[in-house]
Amino acid sequence: MNEEQFYEAVGKVNGWDFSRLRSRTEGELWDFYKIVAENAERSAALLDLGTGGGEKMLEIASSFSSVTAIDRSKAMIETAKANLAKTGYAHVRFLEASSETLPLPDSSFDHLSSRHAPFDAKEVWRVLKKGGTFYTQQVSEADKANLKAAFGRGQSFGEQDGTLRDACESELADAGFSNIEIREYDAAEYLERPEDLLFLLMHTPIIPGFGEQEGDFARLQEFIEQYQTDKGIQTNSKRFLVIARK
After folding, report:
1. Burial of 8 (C-beta count, 10 Å sphere; 0-12/13-18/19+)
2. How far apart are alpha carbons 81 and 77 in whole angstroms?
3. Least enclosed by CB within 10 Å: which of 5, 133, 223, 236?
4. Global pTM?
5. 104 phi/psi in degrees, rounded to 5
């Protein structure tokens, strides 16, 4: 299963709604969508890339005059539209589209957001208004470090930490952004139950093909025994935030 097929399959299961996941983090330095909302004018137009089921974006939709949100997964957009129907918002629309080629006109948005989703820096620059702001939060290579070490494989496993962050900054600069701010945190994360860890592994690409390799479930049990604490099963959540102004 390739990456696109993986995201489509997950979208059919839960639309990327992780509300059932019982976990806590200690050391987070920001809330991504809260930052996007707090820095917006009420008259602003927002574009959200890789919105999934739209749950997080809908929480801040009232802070904007108009919101467009895209995802490449048809299943996720269907979930997002169902979630939208529960809100009564008339200023929000969801589109099935790829962030690589946005089906949107130039200089259309005051703010763009991309949480754990791919983006094309030149496309971001094109559809963003002059003076507008792009926000992206991405997963660092050192995220879930002990979990990947236990399995000997994983998302960005073995890659130099900071490579993706530096690449994002370079791509944005090449696209024309000159005012670029970067923040990072590495927080302790505690998954309350073994079921929560299993849910995470089954619904994210942290350990590619989890359960398909012999010994995966034995390694999972060993990991749980080794990292079980009074607060839950411990791992880490490492993120970086980029704020770029046009």
Report:
1. middle
2. 6
3. 5
4. 0.89
5. -140, 150
